[in-house]
C-alpha cells in the first residue's frame, strides 16, 4: 500500500486522449440530471469509490438535491423519499453494478419498461456503465476525495 495520500498516478495526463474521450462520452448523456446524480451516487456507494461519491454528492447539492434524500440513497428500499422511477433506476443501477452469475433477469428488464421508455433505459444503462468506469479509475489510482473540487467547481457546494 502506498504511504502517501495523493493519487497513485495521474491518468488524466498519462492517458490524456482517452481521458478526454471518456469524459466527452460521459458528458454526452443528457438524461434527467436529478436521476443522473442519484445513479452516480448509488453506483459509487456500491463500488466504494470515495472520490466519485464525494464528487457526485457535491454536484447533487449544487443542483438542488435535498440533503435528506442524499442520506437516504443507501436505504432507498426502506425510504419513502423517492419516486417509483427513481426507485427503478436504483434497482437497475444495482443490477448492472453488481452483476451476478445469472446476469440481468428478463423480469427485471421488463419491470424497467414500466418506468422508462426504451431510449430512456438505454441512456440509463450508458450512465451506469460510465459511472462504473469512473469508479474503477478512481479506485485503481486512489484519487483523494475532494482533490479536484476547485477544478470542477464543486467548492460551490459548501461542503468540506
Structure description:
- With 160 residues, this protein is mainly α.
- It has one domain (31-155): AhpD-like (Up-down Bundle), CATH 1.20.1290.10.
- Helices cover 62% and strands 0% of the residues.
- α3 runs parallel beside α6, α3 packs across α8 and α6 (84-97) crosses α8.
- The two termini are 26 Å apart.
- The model has no long low-confidence stretch (mean pLDDT 93).
Task: Set down the secondary structure blueprint.
Blueprint: H1 11-14, H2 16-28, H3 33-47, H4 50-62, H5 67-72, H6 84-97, H7 106-112, H8 118-141, H9 149-152
Helix pairs in contact: 3-4, 3-6, 3-8, 6-8
DSSP helical segment count:
9
CATH architecture: Up-down Bundle
> CATH homologous superfamily, by name?
AhpD-like
Mean pLDDT: 93
β-strand number: 0
Structural class: mainly alpha
User: Which band does the percent of strand residues land in?
Assistant: under 5%
End-to-end C-alpha gap: 26 Å
CATH topology: AhpD-like
Radius of gyration, in Å, reads 16 Å
How many domains make up the 3D coordinates? 1
Fraction of residues in H or I helices: 55-70%
* Helix-strand string: HHHHHHHHH
- Main beta sheet, described? none
Q: What's the level 1 CATH class?
A: Mainly Alpha
- The gross shape turns out to be globular
Q: Spans with pLDDT under 50 lasting ≥5 residues?
A: none
